[in-house]
Amino acid sequence: MNPLVDLHHRHIRYMRVSITDRCNLRCRYCMPSSGIEWVPHERIMHYEEYLRILKICLKKGVEKIRITGGEPLVRKGLPAFIEQIGSISGLKDLSLTTNGILLSSMASELKKAGLMRVNVSLDTLDRGKFAYITRVDAFEKVVEGILIALQSGLSPLKINVVAIRGFNDDEIPAFARLTTEMPIEVRFIELMPLGCISRYPDHERISAADIKGAIEEIYGPLEHLEGGLGPARIYRIPGAEGSIGLIGSMSESSFCSTCNRIRITATGALRPCLFSQEQLDLLGPMRKGITEAALEELIEEGVKRKPPSHGACRGDQIIQDGPGSQMFTIGG
Ligand code: SAM
Predict the structure, then answer these.
(1) Tens digits of per-residue pLDDT, 56-87?
(2) Which residues 6+ apart lie within 8 Å of 46 measured at CB?
(3) How far is residue 165's CA from residue 157's CA, in Å, rounded to a whole number?
(4) Is any ligand 1 atom within 6 A of the Cβ of residue 20?
(5) Closest atom, ligand 1, to C-alpha of 196
(6) 109-154 pLDDT tens trace
(7) What's the gap in Å between 297 CA and the centre of ligand 1?
(8) Cα 194 to ligand 1 centre (Å)
(9) CB neighbours of 297 closer than 8 A, spacing ≥ 6?
(10) Which residue has its alpha carbon closest to ligand 1 atom 1?
């Protein structure tokens, strides 16, 4: 089978698969506090429908799958789905991004089902600030989830920190210090103009370069490590057990030039670029009985629509809001 290659010669090797738009947190930059119009259940893809798509993509060179959402741990039947994905040949990496709230009760079952590792989103190490940014007082639950995931062997465990000036910039050194104490990767993500960001007035993005500078001010020059298939540049504080990832989604042109990712939304659309509203419906044709060969062609067509870049690193205005730009529907 021909590999999935876009019109800009990028091989697609990494798929992010959103299995729900539901979430048990309401992070200020991601979701409104109320009045959310959830996707009706009948428009959310069934696990068997995801598996049809994944089998084709893995045959065509995808090696890495990340389950996301919404909050993926709120969807029923997840361990069995993980087990089914794990049995598809060609898969090298199967991970999940979670807010960690339900992780302590599910980590060991997920590991047994074949999940290899998790990324846990945690933007602050302070309980009160956690309750503010997520609108739920559940900091301890997330910490417990991280510790149990580590004990369950879901590793390397990564902590995702969205860096927001005026909110957690003062915590960058403390997050970096965690990598000297635990075998984890702390990944700092630049705040992106998606979802609720235009309705979150206190936000301000911190660039990956500034984050690196803030860490180096305290720890000295970071060692640059070989990266994996993901979007982060990886560093280490000399002598540290863990590592630091920097995701320059807004400030670095290599974020797009090396992008090897596509997304499948919870409503069964192939989304070639997180920032582009362009997406191709796969679910409608599947429910109308599309053949495997035609579905494969449709996926190839979706990949061809991948734009060369989202443009923000060239200074283009890409502020997005409203349906179609919500991370919890597209899959973060
Ligand atoms: N519920 C899961 C979680 O919390 O990780 C998965 C979905 S969540 C949408 C995935 C990631 O997207 C989280 O790390 C979240 O912080 C990040 N995210 C959401 N909106 C963002 C934005 N505007 N800029 C940067 N990251 C964002």
Answers:
(1) 999 999 999 999 999 999 999 999 999 999 99
(2) none
(3) 25
(4) no
(5) 23
(6) 999 999 999 999 999 999 999 999 999 999 999 999 999 999 999 9
(7) 31
(8) 10
(9) none
(10) 71
